[in-house]
Amino acid sequence: MSGPIDTAAMSDAALAAHLAEVAGRILLEVRASGVFPAKALGKAGDQTANQFLVHALRCARPEDGLLSEEEKDNPARLEKSRVWIVDPVDGTREYGEERADWAVHVGLAIDGEAVIGAVALPGAGRVLRTDEPQSIPAAPEKLRMVVSRTRPAAEATGVAERIDAELVPMGSAGAKAMAVILGEADIYLHSGGQYEWDSMAPVAVAAAHGLHCSRIDGSPLVYNQSDVYLPDLLICRKEHVDLVMNALRAFNAETKADA
């Protein structure tokens, strides 16, 4: 049996990818155990993966700050330049339903910027990471926009209508962002409310692949804030930014006029 991995010697990106991949395997094992009824599975998976990620990061990077969806917030992180932001299960419903569109997010924000990250898609057997960018397939003639499969935001559907984009319903935020990288979609516009852990790792990975990432008004996404609510997000190819922004302005103007 091999000895423990020296995580302290790993690069931040390699550590993020390793932890996301292992947490994904743990989650698959929790689900496959069959001991949790459907209503309890999501919570069991979240808490189990969270314990692994939190302990692993505190062991590997004890001087860094940490913010997790499943942990009580800690003001000490606000004094740190380097803060790990994790979401043990992004898409709890999809995880419980044994779909593939859920994710594990492990990311590192440095001075508020999403710099390092990995997004594991355990149901698809993939981990996308900032240090191993891949080429993004060419966009088709008819653009595709990923939206929530249960409650698509009005702004997203309004923009899709104006640019004649096909809607692609999907689960977690991480799965949606990675769909743009994988060439399964071209635009991810969200305005229905999110928190820092929902977007930080996906944004780091998407930016490393050359995609545009911002708030829907074009302003930067800033992390490790005292208020972790970060409600909107745009991830798309850079050549589509003006098209999306113009359509969004037209939708907002029309909505305001109708109010």
UniProtKB/TrEMBL annotation:
Biological processes, Gene Ontology terms? 3'-phosphoadenosine 5'-phosphosulfate metabolic process; sulfate assimilation
- CDD domains per the UniProt record, alphabetical: CysQ
EC code: 3.1.3.7
Give the keywords, sorted: Hydrolase, Magnesium, Metal-binding
Any one GO MF term held by the record is:
3'(2'),5'-bisphosphate nucleotidase activity
Q: Does the keyword Disulfide bond apply?
A: no
Q: Which Pfam families match?
A: Inositol_P
| Binding-site list for Mg(2+) 1 | 69, 87, 198
Binding-site residues, Mg(2+) 2: 90
Per its UniProt record, what Gene3D superfamilies does this chain match?
3.40.190.80, Fructose-1,6-Bisphosphatase, subunit A, domain 1 (3.30.540.10)
Q: Does the keyword Ribosomal protein apply?
A: no
Q: Which InterPro entries match?
A: CysQ/Inositol_MonoPase, Inositol_monophosphatase-like
Question: Which co-factors does it depend on?
Answer: Mg(2+)
Name of this protein: 3'(2'), 5'-bisphosphate nucleotidase
The organism is Novosphingobium fluoreni
